[in-house]
Amino acid sequence: MSSDQLFALRHSLAHVLAQAVMKLWPGTLVTIGPPIENGCYYDFLFPQPITDSDLPTIEKEMKKIIYQGQTFRCDELKVADAKKFWRKLKQTFKVELIEDLEKNEKVKTVTHYTNIGPKGEDTFVDLCRGGHVESTKDIPVDGFKVTTLAGAYWRGDEKREQLTRIYVVAFPTKVELDAHLKMVEEAKKRDHRKLGKELDLFTFSDLVGPGLPLWTPRGTIIVDQIEALGKEMEEKGGYQRVRTPHIAKGKLYAQTGHLAHYKTSMFPPMKLDGEEEYYLKPMNCPHHHEIFASSPKSYRDLPLRYGEYGHCYRYEDSGALFGLMRVRSLCMNDAHIYLTEEQFEQEFNAVIDLYIEYFRIFDIGKFVMRLSLHDPKELGKKYVNQPKLWLKTEEMVRQAMKKKNVNYVEVPDEAAFYGPKIDVQIWSAIGREFTLATNQVDFDVPGKMGLKYIDKDGSEKIPLCIHRAPLSTHERLVGFLIEHFAGHFPLWLAPVQVNILPVAAPHEEAAAKLAADLKGRGVRVTVLPSTDSLGKRIRDGEMMKVPYLLVLGDREIAEKTVTVRNTKTKKQAVIPLSDFMEKTVSDIDKRSLMYTIGSV
Fold first, then answer.
1. Can you tell me the distance from the alpha carbon of 201 to that of 220, in angstroms, rounded to the nearest whole number?
2. Which of 385, 446, 441, 449 is nearest to 252 (CA)?
């Protein structure tokens, strides 16, 4: 099925959903019902609350409509007539939509799509631009399912009416639907919010505030390991580390242009007695620019690469917050590369190489690089008004990607305000999509900030700047990795790498010595004393997804072996202690993806 056909199927199903709801709950106010990835939804204002127990009833009614083979008729109405039509039905949201179309798009007419019943009667009408199947019988009755309810504010404004959103998943066949539902169930098991709590990795506190994650000791180990990886890779890449404060004067962000473009995403200013306004740092680049400007620079100093795991703060509406994926406090794997135009291709592609190496380390097999471009109509508003530089810089990125033979897609109207960028979409092990890394080209802000270097001919020139964050933020990356690995982190990343289980009290001394030896070689290890049964300790280790459980009893001590249990594969083997030590330390040092000892 083509994308257009799938759009029509899901769009038509949204109308069927609304028709079913209106029949079951007369007096309901309808709003919008777009097709989306994997299905559609529709937002309603019900006369009385509905619950999940009502979803099967809605689905049954939808199937009745589909079996009738209803068709769709398009009617074009003058704006005044359309508003009169919806006012008569007391559908105030539809009237508002038409008024906005009239005001913002200057439309003179709008289209209605009417469902036609088996006897030729009008059964349902909606304000709609079209894209429908010929007949509802073209919608497979075993290819969709009404899945969930959610709350939604009208127009996304939390000051407006709170609506009830009904989601439907829809596919051309039952096989595809079943595969999707299976993936959804697996995703629930892997949900980073659920596993993060079970594995004691992070928490949130009402006293601290929403969107402000607190990392527990176990979660902090993961964060520290990721940061160590980032610093190690950046040292190899010639980066210099810097540190910047958490606040700055508002005039800094005004000069860079961030205040004008991102003020709604920034926390309110702090009013200090006798001083200017200060803002919590929403991004690191203005601070790095000031470090660059603090001393004279020559072309010999370039490229100059400043790296920082900088802590930033961004205001997100409470309704947009989502575990670690959408937060208000974030620690960003940020760096800024100051360079000449001649150095651009090499430096830009070095960042791409860094991405690909990280994806290998984290077993991210599927990714897409998106070249985000500007919209000429938005120059001077959403984007800096330098049309020639936009076209030139976008072409520089295109050519760099083509010469490197990197697959990418172009996406209009998603650039940064100061230049084009590469956004990287990745997919987890179960196919969930995430936006992770970014590689942005800035041809504008360095000039605004007075950044310059002395070129070979003695003239002053403005450097280009590449903004890059290949490991995103700690928050988003860890959230992704929890779901990607289902909590079974690679050995090098696991908060606790080995649990030692002495069979009984007489074996605890040997367990303590083994733990000390492992810790001495950099292994994170815990001894679970024999006060609990061996079975319970094995279950506890598996529940916390500790990679290796080592059972130590009389035989193991006498033969200098260990019984190793792999909590991911559930396999178990007896191997020489020295082999375990060497292989484990080697796997950690190499950041091996899998943890396997012998046949385990």
1. 7
2. 449
Beta-carbon neighbour count of residue 523 at 10 Å? 18
* Whether residue 166 is found in the same domain as residue 282: no
CA pair distance 567, 549, nearest whole angstrom = 7
* 455 and 508 both lie in a single domain: no
Distance from C-alpha of 577 to C-alpha of 517, rounded to nearest angstrom: 11
CA dihedral 236, 237, 243, 247 (to 10 degrees): -140
Q: Are residues 454 and 419 in the same domain?
A: yes
Residue type, 364: I
Spatial contact of 292 and 304, defined as CB atoms under 8 Å apart: yes
Question: What's the token pair of residue 492?
Answer: 């090098």
Tell me what the mean pLDDT of segment 149-154 comes to. 91
One domain, residues 167 and 297: no
* Structure tokens, 378: 């938005």
Q: pLDDT for 366-414, tens place per residue? A: 899 999 999 999 998 899 999 999 999 999 999 999 988 888 999 999 9
Are 473 and 328 within 8 A, CB to CB? no
Picking from 114, 117, 94, the residue whose alpha carbon sits closest to that of residue 44 is: 94
Q: How far is CA 577 from the centre of its chain?
A: 42
551: pLDDT strictly greater than 80: yes
Whether 480 is in a domain gets the answer yes
| Backbone φ, ψ for residue 292 (5° rounding) | -60, -45
Q: What is the pTM of this model?
A: 0.84
Domain count, the chain: 3
- Residue 189 falls inside a structural domain: no
Domain of 225, in residue numbers:
198-485
Judge contact between 29 and 48, C-beta under 8 A.
no
Distance, CA of 169 to CA of 466 (rounded, Å): 40
> Are residue 275 and residue 417 in the same domain, yes or no?
yes
Compute the distance between CA of residue 311 and CA of residue 212 in angstroms, rounded to an integer: 12
Q: Cα–Cα distance between 232 and 307 in angstroms, integer?
A: 11
Alpha carbons 85 and 93: distance in angstroms, whole number: 12
Report residue 255: phi and psi, to 5°: -70, -40
Strands, E assignment, 492-557 = 498-502, 525-527, 548-552
Residue 429's CB is within 10 A of a number of other CB atoms, namely: 15
- DSSP helix/strand/coil, 550: strand
User: Does residue 597 sit within a domain?
Assistant: no
Question: d(Cα 105, Cα 84) in Å, to the nearest integer?
Answer: 19
Residue 413, CA atoms < 13 Å, CB-side half-sphere: 5
CATH of the domain at 77: 3.30.980.10
d(CA 225, CA 242): 19
Please report which confidence band the pLDDT of residue 88 belongs to, taking 50, 70 and 90 as the band edges. very high
CATH number at residue 464: 3.30.930.10
**pLDDT exceeds 80 at position 498:** yes
d(CA 489, CA 495): 9
pLDDT at 497: 97
330 vs 9, 473, 530, CA distance in Å? 40, 6, 41
Distance CA 327, CA 477 (A): 12
Q: What does the alpha-carbon distance between residue 238 and residue 39 come to, in Å, rounded to a whole number? A: 47
